[in-house]
Design a protein that fits this description.
This protein is 41% helix and 15% strand. It has 245 residues and is of the alpha/beta class.
């Protein structure tokens, strides 16, 4: 299992330090792989706070470019320089708020791989697409467009995050989750065999109270957690549920 906390654009530097410290101190022995994705300006502080724990830290996005005139962007190599070991790419908030295309997502995945950090590629359909019966086709399309065709031993994790479940309190049913995750697993085996066994995370309003149910779905290998990763008790509750799954 792999549990990742996406803090998005939340918190002060002091709050980031306090949350990271609490998690580092309270992470149970035998916890699954746990990663924190704080806002970029808080990366160094969070890295310092978790330095003596097994928690790893990553960026919420990276530029597709190695360097140059890209105001406001952060390169994958800059993340590595800080000590980050992962990056989230293609989050629906990036796709929607910043108009990120599949081609840009692919370039960012490639940049992360080339920098040698683990990439979490987010995929997921909107409510409109689900209601139109297009959910699986949309996700297949995002996988095909976002994953390089040639891969070998690269650390890429998939996060299935139905857009309508992110930050809304709505969670996919266990059946829908299982169906989608089984489809993703089958697609990876057929089209990107190097990722055949990679973790497939579920994301979308996962909380300590529903985590048992999420982790009982087929092929769910962990969670990408937004809101509930901002409170140490909630996030630790999800980690505990993963340990018991
Ligand atoms: C996310 O943004 O990746 C996410 C899953 O958010 P939330 O848990 O708040 O729905």
């Amino acid at each position: 299992m792999f549990i990742a906390g996406n803090w998005k654009m939340n918190g002060t530097l002091d709050q980031a330090r306090a949350l990271a410290r609490a998690l580092a101190e309270q992470l149970p022995a035998g916890a699954p792989t746990t990663a924190l994705f704080p806002p970029a300006p808080h990366l160094t502080a969070v890295l310092e706070e978790v330095a003596d724990s097994p928690i790893f830290v990553g960026g919420q996005d990276c530029s597709p470019h190695p360097d140059g005139a890209h105001t406001g962007d952060v390169s994958a190599a800059m993340l590595v320089d800080l000590g980050a070991r992962g990056v989230i790419v293609g989050h629906s908030e990036r796709r929607t708020n910043h108009g990120e295309t599949d081609a840009q997502v692919l370039a960012k995945v490639t940049a992360g791989m080339q920098a040698g950090i683990g990439v979490i590629l987010c995929v997921g359909e909107t409510l409109e697409q689900r209601e139109a019966g297009q959910a699986e086709a949309v996700v297949r399309g995002q996988l095909a467009a976002g994953l390089p065709e040639t891969l070998s031993g690269d650390a890429i994790t998939i996060a299935y995050e139905p857009v309508w479940a992110i930050g809304t309190g709505k969670v996919a049913t266990r059946d829908d989750m299982s169906t989608m995750h089984r489809m993703i697993r089958a697609w990876l085996r057929e089209h990107r065999p190097a990722l055949a066994e990679t973790f497939i995370l579920y994301g979308g309003s996962v909380k300590a109270a529903n985590a048992d149910d999420v982790f009982a779905a087929d092929e769910v290998g962990g969670a990408l957690v937004g809101g509930a990763s901002l409170k140490s008790d909630d996030f630790l509750g999800i980690i505990t549920a993963a340990m018991n799954a």
